[in-house]
Write a structure and sequence with these properties.
The chain is α/β, with parallel strands linked by helices. Helix content is 20%, strand content 30%. The protein folds into 2 domains: 213 residues, Spore Coat Polysaccharide Biosynthesis Protein SpsA, Chain A; 218 residues, 3 Solenoid (UDP N-Acetylglucosamine Acyltransferase, domain 1). Bound molecules: uridine-diphosphate-N-acetylglucosamine (UD1) and calcium ion. The site of uridine-diphosphate-N-acetylglucosamine has 27 residues, from strand 1, helix 3 and strand 10.
Length: 446
């Protein structure tokens, strides 16, 4: 029988080392705030309740946690991790299942690893996620005997013998709500830091005859972020895992280390991605598309067989149909572009609906903004937009219409019409010859 699960996310710590006006746990990894990563982890572990512990100073964290639908517990002042979990006691007083503590500054734990911690409770009373640390430094040490966990000893309290242990505490700990709080009620702050250590619950519960075990994860997964340096390490760890995942799904990355992904980048097989491409959040790329070097994409959908860049900027709300072509120095935003249409060079297409087989000439600009409101440009199937057209929205170019180059199009163009919206050309015979003769004469005199 699986018991009901709850998560307590600790996010009340001060983030002084980030030197940021933004709380640490709201800094992004892979384009998503760390707090959201941990919330997603809790969700994927099937929890029915999440309590986020915040400090009074972290108003931004509280707002973000509420926005994510979490319950809030305030811990003020911050007297340690055990004290933080105690702050959520009231929220869980009617909960009769298993609680897991997660740290909001530890974003990369995988769902599969978290469920191994829950599963360990099938034949133990308390489970801790540990890892073999390359440099154990200040981590708490897991003291084990066979597959039993005897204690977690904080580095500051450890004997030289205990310090030599490399199996460390990630911070994730899971037990029944009843056991967790019965132990926490007995934790004291009689230690080097004068804090209430969550880790003390292991020895207390063992004293009650409970069985504790450690589940082992990867060091890269349990990396905790305390500084900008750690944030960069977490980003690297995320990127290298994501690159490997994307390639394993049948995508060619010409220069994997230079491609930046977001947490939710979705790319179908047989897509090719060139060097130095950046994917912001919300991008889907369909089969056989090519994304050429130095392109930047966010919140968009790239159709099957589409050809993007080099140097294209695909902004939020862009939906490109199959076999579309977006060339160099083209920016699109909130634009739907139909099958086979091309915007090949130096254009801005914003707030636009473009049909199928439309050709948009070089240097075309949709003038979508009047300083107050945004307006829509519609270009119907098969239209031909001449080079250097300015389309002053709202405006509709009818099916199959043809716009002469250099037009400032302010009025709708009927289907199949030619629109010329530029001054007529005047040729003055021999004007240039006369001009040069006069200029040279003046120069010779001076
Ligand atoms: C903690 C563990 C240590 C483990 C390490 C892993 C304890 C006593 N030690 O140490 O065994 O190896 O994490 O990274 O638990 N927090 C609060 N309120 C507080 C204190 C902390 O919400 O009063 C939150 C922080 O925001 C953070 C998390 O708890 O998300 C961990 O706190 P931190 O002070 O970084 O713990 P460590 O000393 O690193
Ligand atoms: Ca820490």
């Amino acid at each position: 029988m699986t018991k009901e699960r709850a998560a307590i996310i600790l996010a009340a710590g001060k983030s002084t080392r980030m030197k940021s006006a933004t709380s640490k746990v709201l800094h992004p990894v892979g384009g998503r705030p760390m707090l959201s990563w941990v919330k997603a982890l809790a969700d994927s572990a099937g929890v029915s309740k999440i309590v986020c512990v915040v400090g009074e100073a972290n108003a931004d964290v509280r707002a973000a946690a509420e926005g994510l639908g979490m319950e809030i517990a305030v811990q003020e002042p911050q007297l340690g991790t055990g004290h933080a979990v105690l702050a959520a006691k009231d929220n869980l007083k009617d909960f009769e299942g298993i609680v897991t503590v997660l740290y909001a500054d530890t974003p990369l734990i995988r769902a599969e690893t978290a469920s191994r911690v829950f599963d360990a409770l099938d034949d133990a009373d308390v489970a801790v996620l540990g890892f073999e640390a390359e440099d154990p430094a200040a981590y708490g040490r897991l003291i084990t005997d066979g597959d039993e966990l005897q204690a977690i000893v904080e580095a500051k309290e450890a004997t030289p013998e205990q310090l030599a242990v490399t199996l460390c505490n990630s911070g994730v700990i899971s037990a029944s709500r009843a056991d967790m709080y019965s132990a926490l009620d007995r934790v004291t702050n009689d230690n080097a830091k004068g804090e209430y250590y969550l880790t003390d619950v292991i020895e207390i519960l063992r004293g009650d005859g409970r069985r504790a075990v450690a589940v082992i994860g990867d060091e890269a997964e349990v990396l905790g972020v305390n500084s900008r340096h750690d944030l960069a390490l977490a980003e690297q760890a995320f990127q290298s895992a994501k690159r490997a995942e994307i390639m394993s799904e049948g995508v060619t990355l010409r220069d994997p280390d230079s491609v930046i992904f977001a947490f939710d980048t979705a790319i179908e097989n047989d897509v090719e991605v060139g060097a130095n491409v950046v994917f912001g959040p919300g991008v889907t790329v369909r089969r056989n598309a090519s994304i050429h070097p130095f392109s930047h994409l966010e919140d968009c959908e790239i159709g099957e067989g589409a050809n993007i860049g080099p140097f294209a900027r695909i902004r939020p709300g862009t939906i490109l149909g199959p076999d579309t072509r977006i060339g160099n120095f083209v920016e699109t935003k909130k634009a739907r572009i139909g099958q086979g249409s091309k915007v090949n060079h130096l254009s801005y297409i914003g707030d636009a609906e473009i049909g199928e087989d439309v050709n948009v000439g070089a240097g075309t600009i949709t003038c979508n903004y009047d300083g107050y409101n945004k307006h829509t440009t519609i270009i119907e199937d098969g239209a031909f937009v001449g080079t250097h057209s300015s389309l002053v929205a709202p405006v509709t170019i009818g099916r199959g219409a043809f716009l002469g180059s250099g037009g400032v199009i302010t009025k709708d163009v009927p289907a199949d019409a030619l629109a010329l919206a530029r001054a007529d050309q005047v040729n003055k015979e021999d004007w240039a010859k006369r001009y040069h003769t006069a200029q040279r004469k003046r120069k010779d005199k001076s």
